[in-house]
Amino acid sequence: MKNVDVVIIGAGPAGCATAISCARRGLRVALIERQAFPRFRPGESLHPGIEPLLRQLGVAEPLCGQAARRFDGQWVHWHGPPRFNGFGGDERGAWQGFHIERALLDTTMLSQAAALGAEVHQPCRALRVLTQANRVIGVETDNGCIYATCLIDASGARGWLSGQLGLPIHHCSAPLLACYGYLQGRSATYATTAHLLADPDGWTWITQVEDCLLHWTRLTFEKNTRSVTLPKALQALPVVGTLRGADVTWRITPAAAGAGYFLVGDAANRLDPASSHGVLKALMSGMQAAQAVTDCLRQPALQLLVQRQYRQWLNDGFSHDMTHLRDFYRQHPRPPSWLPVE
Ligand SMILES: Cc1cc2nc3c(=O)[nH]c(=O)nc-3n(C[C@H](O)[C@H](O)[C@H](O)COP(=O)(O)OP(=O)(O)OC[C@H]3O[C@@H](n4cnc5c(N)ncnc54)[C@H](O)[C@@H]3O)c2cc1C
User: Fold this and answer.
1) 129: closest CA among 161, 175, 177?
2) Potential cystine with 207: which of 24, 108, 194, 203 (Cβ 3.0-4.6 Å)?
3) Is any atom of ligand 1 closer than 6 Å to the C-beta of 202?
4) How confident is the model at residue 319, as a pLDDT?
């Protein structure tokens, strides 16, 4: 049995950002992760807004230095001539996103959390939430119990704590399944920009993520099919690994903070990959939750207010991104039937 200030379930970007930010504030942190690293996860194309966050977390140097593969934005082939959606820019030039091997992102962030004093338990699985008088007080893992003043659920799309506490989840789209895969090869077309191609059932997103590796993701709005027709130039390229699928139904847990807990990253809310900044949101929510936890520990009388502000911040961000994605899908040649009427 252990006692810490914060126990974090999941060592993806959201969990590690929380761990690093809490450890920096002098909190005693336990981070538990059920899988050994390196482990596979999609999400290697990162929004430029991530760079300042990685700097704050002390991991920018190894991740977005000279060697990083940059890209300017994406070409959208919705209807009419293709349209370039850049990330924007300032007096120093165009902002650029970058591709990072997810295994490198995950291991670098986990090492930084450990270096700052977070106790890492891996592989270690959260089995059951521990509560007392309607307050979360810790977690039972397959390696014993950990008691904490605050539990952070960073378990990703599984939403471990929502399941444990029976928190209501609002689904904001039809059920959506994204399928995705990798091809070995190089293509000048996708080298510096991603392409988002519309078809009658949805879209396919293609980009060059490494020197000799292309990634594609396909989403169908209504059919949840796993079939994909890639552009002719790519059809002959060897497939790397297996075809994978992920549930990317839009969803949010409104009660994302409560007595003794906060939800961060995909565990709190999620849109499909066309919103294109899942990792950015994971880092931001982890860092925001770390501040909220610190405030609750230092001024317990304010915790209800802090929890409410965190929920509001998450809900506002989600609504903003969802409105943006709905507007984008309304311009699709065949918009999803489940979009609300304006
Ligand atoms: C096809 C696809 C493409 C995507 N492309 C992009 C992209 O290009 N750019 C981008 O920014 N985002 C992308 N995303 C979204 C991105 O992958 C996620 O938003 C991001 O990984 C969320 O991070 P997280 O830390 O919340 O969760 P995760 O990265 O999923 O981490 C959760 C961790 O919790 C652990 N865990 C779960 N349950 C337990 C338990 N019971 N006990 C202990 N540990 C547990 C898991 O093993 C995992 O390591 C994509 C998503 C999909 C499906």
Assistant:
1) 161
2) 194
3) no
4) 97
